[in-house]
Amino acid sequence: MRIVVIGAASGLGRRVVAQLCDRGYEVVATGRSRQRLQLIDRRAETAVADITNAASLAPLLASADRIINIAHASTIEPLITLVPGTCERLIVTGSTRRDSNVPDPGADKVRRGEAVFERSELPGSILHPTMIYGGDSERNVTRILTLVGRWPRWLPLLWPVPDGGKTLVQPVYVDDVAAALVAAATAELSPARTIVVAGPQPITLAEMLRACASACGRRLHIVPVPSAMLIGAARLLSACAIKAPFSVAELQRSREDKSYDIDALRTELDVNPRSFFEGIRLLADEETELACTDQPPKG
């Protein structure tokens, strides 16, 4: 089976390619940067290609049995026009950000991409990951670990959290997302049309933050702050052209519960994601190893 992976040079993409190669599939990994493609598993064929440049991608897709698109959901629309009729299955990546009620151009693009995919009636599935942590491109959990690591050891680790961190989150480890994409593309039977990819159960934001600190050997003390106050401070910093640790939109989304049923992930794809407490220990160990060896990130 020949599988073309679009967006393969990302941290998630490299994991998908490696898992496919481990299973013995013929893999064509595409990306826009020749330099980043050099980081991909050498068992895969690599090619510089861009969805916005049909001439670069169409010839590669012509011989594909399956296609996995890891690029942003905004690329689904131009991709649809390039998928050959001989393709047995197309797997595209969305995001649970589509469920947010906060005005957000990024969420709008996910919704449009999903609508285009549904109208296409092409065989395949769209996978909607929640907050992905791990890899070299995520900015949420890694940013928290970085801030914790920089906090002076002699100072108590006090962390202002919107409304005490009572809202629910359901982050998912990057390797589990890769496993879901691989399973969706290679399963013997076509999986469900839409599948949410999330951790095994929701946890509170406060629990997530404390787990991050614990993985770094620190004890974090939550300082409840009204979310309206934090959002106001972020707006003020933005108006003064000062970069805040978290944007207004991120703080607004932090007030929304993220709780998802992952029955389809387990039953359709046979993927049982690890808990956040297990995944964050793996990530913290990796970050510590990289800091000690001064090696480039694996993700």
Structural description of this entry:
There is one protein chain. With 299 residues, the chain is α/β, with parallel strands linked by helices. It folds into 2 domains: 2-129, Rossmann fold, CATH 3.40.50; 133-170 and 200-258 and 274-299, UDP-galactose 4-epimerase, domain 1 (Alpha-Beta Complex), CATH 3.90.25. The chain is 41% helix and 18% strand. The chain contains 12 helices and 13 strands. It has helices at 11-22, 34-37, 54-61, 76-80, 105-120, 141-150, 174-186, 205-215, 227-239, 248-253, 263-269, 276-293; strands spanning 2-6, 26-31, 45-48, 66-69, 89-93, 124-129, 132-133, 157-162, 168-169, 172-173, 194-197, 203-204, 220-225. It has a 7-stranded parallel β-sheet with strand order 3-2-1-4-5-6-11, with helices on both faces. Helix 2 (34-37) links the parallel strand 2 (26-31) and strand 3 (45-48). Helix 1 crosses helix 7 (174-186) and helix 8 (205-215) packs parallel to helix 12. The longest helix has 18 residues, at 276-293. The chain is globular and about 60 Å long. The chain starts with a strand and ends in a 6-residue tail after the last helix. 40% of the residues are buried.
